[in-house]
Amino acid sequence: MSPASGCTIRVFDSLSRQVIPLPLSEDGGHPGGRTLKLYVCGVTPYDSGHMGHAFTFCAFDLLVRWAEASGVRVRYVQNVTDVDDPLFERARRDGVGWKELADREVGRLLEDMRALGWRPPDVMPRVSAEIPAILAAVDRLVERGFAYQTDALYYAAGRYPDYGGLSHLSRRSMLRKLRDEGLLGEVGPGAKRDPLDFPLWRRSAPDEPSWPSRYGEGRPGWHIECSAMSMRYLGDQVDVHGGGRDLCFSHHESERAQSESLTGCVPFSRAWMHTGMVRYRGHKMSKSLGNLVVVPEALARVPAAALRLYLVAHRYRRDWSFRWEGLVGAARLIAEAAELLRRRGALDPGGRVRPFDAAKAGGRRGAPQEAAPDLVARFSAAMDDDLDTPRAVRALRAAVRRADAAGAGWMLRILCGEAALT
Question: How far apart are CA 292 and CA 312, in angstroms?
Answer without folding.
Answer: 18
